[in-house]
Amino acid sequence: MFSSSKPNLSRIDLNLLTALEAMLDERSVTKAAGRLFIGQPAMSHHLGRLRELFDDPLLVRQGSTMKLTRRASELQPMLRKILDQVRNDLLPVQHFEPALFSGHIKIGLTDYAESLYAEAIVEALRFSAPESSVSFILVDRDSAFAGFQKGLLDIAIGSLGNGPTELAVEKLYTEKHVCLFDNRQLKLNLPLSYEDFLSVDHALINNTGFVKGIVDDLLAERGDKRKVRVTCGRFTSLLRLLPGEPLISVVPQVLAALGDPEQMLTFSPCPVAVPDFDIYLAWRREDHDNLLLKWLRKLVGDVVRERRALLLPHHDTVS
């Protein structure tokens, strides 16, 4: 009569199964021991444990050779299937081939980062992983952190330092601010003076509907105020707006270099001490050793640094 109780899996050692596989393939304790680089006494000990575990002799001597029992013959294909699945699906892959990758990548980008790096990342992926696809997900600081928590992002780029402890970050560079404007319209002396800065109309990036930003807070500390005439939700819109308009905008330095040279926009050091900000590449700590994401982080980090160096050839790309 068969017992209805389930086997105790704690009695099964993966080493025992690999030993059984070798012995059933080789039909020899000695050859199986050589295949696994262990001594024959150790392999004989494994065979004894396996016979006890399966309640079957498994290998029996017939003349000068070893013969598989009926139970061993039934076990062999199942054992090979199980161990192949462990080797191929459960254990970590030791290498990653971008050219063979056909999966989907999800990258969170702030408006700033999307304007600067999305196109270059697409080109790099097309070259290195031509069968892959990518989604750029527009995020701000808070939505990026939420996206990671929900598993919606693989990596993200932006001002994402000092985030949740479950995120890892790599600093890519420090960004400075400059004033950007069409000086054919404003005809201001350079470098821009504080008085001229306050005397003209301003445009700023703000997608909240409020006509205010960090510059206004800094001016308020000095008892001053600027005239904000226009707000834009995206940096790309601002770059299209400024040519031909009598407006000044305080923008990240690299974005000032992104504009079309034919638009002949001028940038000048900002006479207000706007704090620099750091740009980070972020990912979940639990994904740190994932081979796909390790490759992706390096590819994107290299793209960002190369793109920034191309836009600002006479400036340090890391502070």
From N to C, what is the helix and strand string?
HHHEEHEHEHEEEHHEHEHEHEEH
Which range does the strand content fall in? 15-25%
Question: Could you give the distance between the termini?
Answer: 76 Å
Structural class: alpha/beta
The number of helices is 12
Overall pLDDT confidence = 86
Helix content: 40-55%
Largest sheet: 5 strands, mixed
Instruction: Assign an overall shape.
Output: rod-shaped
- Whole-angstrom Rg: 32 Å
Q: Regions with pLDDT < 50 over 5+ consecutive residues?
A: 315-319
In the sheet with the most strands, the strands line up as 4-3-5-12-6
Q: What's the total number of strands?
A: 12
Question: What can you tell me about this protein's structure?
Answer:
- The chain has 319 residues and is an alpha/beta fold.
- The protein has helices spanning 14-26, 29-35, 40-54, 70-90, 111-128, 141-149, 183-186, 194-199, 214-221, 235-241, 253-256, 291-311; strands at residues 59-62, 65-68, 104-109, 133-138, 155-158, 167-175, 177-181, 201-205, 227-232, 247-252, 266-269, 277-284.
- The longest helix has 21 residues, at 70-90.
What is this structure's SSE topology?
Elements: H1 14-26, H2 29-35, H3 40-54, E1 59-62, E2 65-68, H4 70-90, E3 104-109, H5 111-128, E4 133-138, H6 141-149, E5 155-158, E6 167-175, E7 177-181, H7 183-186, H8 194-199, E8 201-205, H9 214-221, E9 227-232, H10 235-241, E10 247-252, H11 253-256, E11 266-269, E12 277-284, H12 291-311
Helix pairs in contact: 1-2, 1-3, 1-4, 2-3, 5-12
